[in-house]
Amino acid sequence: MLDFVICDDNLNALNRLEKLLESAFISKNLEAQIVLSTTEPGDLINYLKHHSVNVVILDIDLKAKVSGLDLANLIRKQDKNVYIIFTTGHLEYGLIAYKYKTFDYLPKPVTPERLMDTIERLIDDIFGDDTKFVRLDNNKTIIKQDGIQYIQKDGMKVIFHTDTRDYESYSSFKKILPQLPEQFVQCHKSYIVNTKKITDVDITNNAIFLNHNEDLKCYIGPKYKNQLMEVLNYGNFSNNLDNSYNT
What we know:
Shape: elongated
Distance between the termini: 40 Å
Number of strands: 15
Strand content: 25-35%
C-alpha cells in the first residue's frame, strides 16, 4: 500500500487534487490511499512525526508562516526516501523546488493528464527498483525494504513486521528471499531477519532483539545459527551491534 499525503492552502484545489489522485489510483490499478489531506501545514508536520508515508504532495505557496519548501526541508531531514511532489502556480519556484530532491513539479492548475504522467513515472520508479522495495499481492502492495524488521511465516501466511505496521501475504520464503538484499538472513524456519535492525542477540535463548525493544524479537533455529553468526560477525550489516553477544 502506498500512502499519500497532500497539503494545499486552497480547499478547492485540495479537493480537486484528491479526486484526480483517486481516479489515477483506480486507472492504474494501484493499491494506494490518501492518508491525510489538509490545508494546515501544522497538521502535516504532526502527522509525519508519527507516521511513515511514501509520497508527499505540497503546494509551495501556502500563505502561512511556513512554505511548502520549508515543509520539504523538514521532511527531508526526517525521511531521505519519501517522494516529494510540488504543486504551484508560480513557475519561478520550479528550480528552487528541486533543491529538496523533488520527484516532480506540477504547475497549477494540475491537469489529469499531467498528474497521470507523474503517477506513471512514480510507479515505474518504485517498482523498477528492486533494491528498495518488496512487492506483494501481484505487485499492488509494496513495502520499503529498510522499514522491514523481520518476516515471519505463520502457516500459509507470511507476515512482514515493519516499523509502522504488519503486512500479510500468502507467499513463501522461497519466493520472498530473492527479492531481498543481503542484509536479510533466514535465522529460523519461520523467520527472516533484517540484520540492520538487530540490536542484541541472546545465544543462550536463541533470541534476536530488534530496535532496542525487548518485546520485539524473533528466534534462531539450530540449522541457521552458524550462518547467522557468520553474517553478524563478518557481514558488517548491523550498525547497532557491538559484536559482544549475550551468552
